Amino acid sequence: MNQFAWTPTNPPPMPVPPPLPATLEFTGERKGFFDLVARGAGLELITLGFYRFWLVTDVRRHLWSNTVIDGDAAEYTGRGRELLIGFLIAMAVLMPIYLGYFLVGIEAERWQALASFPLIAAFYVFGQFAIYRARRYRLTRTIWRGVRFWMDGSGWAYAARATLWGVFAILTLGIASPWRAAALERYKMRHSWYGDLQGDFEGRGWELFKKVWWLWPVTPIALFIFPLLPFLYAYYKAVEWRWWLSGIRFGEVRVQSTLEPSALQGLYWKVIGWSVLFFTVFGILIAGAVPLLTKLSEAAGPDAVMQTPAMIAVTVIGYLALALGISVVARLYLSRDLWVRVLASTTVTGLEAAANVAARGDLASALGEGFADGLDVGGF
Amino acid sequence: MAGEPAIYFDGTSSRRRTATLAFSDALEIHGDEGVITRWAYADIRRADSPSGTLRLSCQTAPALARLEIRDAALAAEVTSRCAKLDDHHLGRRGVAKIVFWSLAATASIILIVLFGVPLAADRLAPLVPEGLERRIGDVTEKQVKLLFDGKVCSNAAGQRAFTKLVNALREQAGLDPSVQTAVLSSPVPNAFALPGGKVFLFDGLLAKAENPDEIAGVLAHELGHLKHRDNMRGLIYNGGTSFLIGLLFGDITGSSALIFASRTLVTASHSREQEGNADTFAIELMQKLGRSAKPMGELLFRVTGKEGGRGLSILSGHPFTEDRLARMTREHRPPSGPPLLTPDEWVALKNICRTGSKV
Lengths: 380, 359
Description:
The complex is a heterodimer.
Chain A: E1 22-26, H1 30-46, H2 52-65, E2 67-69, E3 72-76, H3 80-111, H4 119-140, E4 142-144, E5 147-151, H5 155-171, H6 177-190, E6 192-194, E7 197-201, H7 205-212, H8 215-222, H9 228-247, E8 248-250, E9 253-257, H10 265-297, H11 302-305, H12 309-344, E10 346-349, H13 367-375
Antiparallel strand pairs in A: 1-2, 1-10, 2-3, 3-4, 4-5, 5-6, 6-7, 7-8, 8-9, 9-10
Helix pairs in contact in A: 1-2, 1-12, 2-3, 3-13, 4-5, 4-13, 5-6, 6-7, 7-9, 9-10, 10-12
Chain B: E1 6-9, E2 17-23, E3 27-31, E4 34-39, E5 44-47, E6 54-58, E7 66-69, H1 72-81, H2 92-124, H3 130-148, E8 152-153, H4 156-173, E9 180-184, E10 191-194, E11 198-202, H5 203-208, H6 212-228, H7 230-249, H8 255-288, H9 294-304, H10 321-330, H11 343-350
Parallel strand pairs in B: 9-11
Antiparallel strand pairs in B: 1-2, 1-7, 2-3, 3-4, 5-6, 6-7, 8-9, 10-11
Helix pairs in contact in B: 2-7, 4-6, 4-11, 6-8, 6-9, 7-8, 9-10
């Protein structure tokens, strides 16, 4: 750990900004994180999902507070209760919208069958709004050296950009996607602040395109040859992370990532491997329970035994255990380990520009997170 | 015991200041130029930090002011003085509270699904304005016709026979003439009622029928759905349970499978009940006309075959066909009234979808 050199009579002067790039390190123990998500998944099942607000908060608190930038750890000050309230408010807003959607849909369908389809597009726009507002919530809960990050800009302006770029990307069959990502990231980062230090994004669509263009013809093939798909996805995610991180700026502070394109392959395959294992165990459990229960209950046959309460109980419990196992594994590898690898590849230069930043910005409500939860477009 | 290493952030700027601590009646934080601030012990709270670092905040200081202590001995010293250090943390009791209220919410949602929603559906269905119901019916009609690629059959002689049969049933059932019925040219052996008083019969079912009573029973069953306004009740019921069950399982991994499974279970039981009631209605209606519903059961059995042992009965939206047939056989009375169609009319009805002149 970071032992501070110190002499009692002569306190050290203000630390001189290091000339070398500042390092980022992760100090959290894997075991601790595992315990956290395993316990959280159990509670999530007991509470039928309501614990998710607290679990997601605990995961973020662990990841944030163990992310050490230039010797000082970040902090996440969001709380589960805020997410719960955001979710409840979002529900109150979404319910009449769903009802209105239903009624407008009837009118549209009366005019022409399946005419209500474009209304789904309205939900896409709303989902983009939710993504922006949820990011704002998370950012305003992110603290480093006693100063918070924050965001201005408008969720609706972002949603409009995301939708128009989305239409453009569809019209170009996905070729415009890198430019869409760059444009949206620019909007998000230029409206992100650390105290009074404004963010910016210097990643170019073209740079991303150069690295991923070959995925465009290969992906349709991979859809037919299953094992290829995770390789492509893991490659894409690694390239995207590197491109995204290397584009981040806060004033003179520059982030740089050297993440290898193959760096995330192992993580995705581990999740797949564990999931296959869990499914196999689940299958064996069901396959083994049928003859056993047939014998015990003296039912007429395998079909009859499927209807007995004992068999239904075995299936439901097995299924819940399966879901629990996969959620723990996914969080362990794809939230924590992925973050650790990404962090290890990242350096920050020009941090002296952030040495004396004045605090600014207010807290944003968790309403966006609530919408994101309600619309299933959640982020980290 | 002054002069231990600590780092202080004042919460108004990101300036990192080395500080020394002094313990008096409050925690004194000293910087290069003397006392920076004093934190009352009772106001000091623990903030998240990496292991090996004690990070503190103070309720009366700026919200983001932080004091970081990386020396274990000093951290222990501070901890021992701050009695309320972890007061704001979600402890075991906090978690127990979340679990309790979640379970309470779950129980109330389950009770609403089991008792509240069916009640609401029964009470609300008659209150739905006829205009709205008709609109919903128009929408489903369009979708159904699109889905089954069905054209309305209107062979004149067949249409006359069909109208005669439907009118006999409808008048006996006490339904007003706004009921719309038609035969659709689809090979699927089925019939159904839509909201707003629409009954459709597929040609595929006519092809499998051997006498007018078989078709009359099926139509009587569908008129039963209209009479009970089962469509609106089903719509309110399905919408309500889908929403509530979705709310209940929220975001558990694989929740969509759970939502789908539990919704299927719940709505299937509701639908079985409605089907049973429509069968009762059909049996009574046929008996009032001096006919029997048993031929209907035989037609259904011819279409589906024996269903038991093939699927889960609790997942099925209908009672098993053999059970329906058994029931209709039990209620069977020998016909006492006149046939509903003459042999010629029956042939015409069977051929309603043939467009040529050959009857």
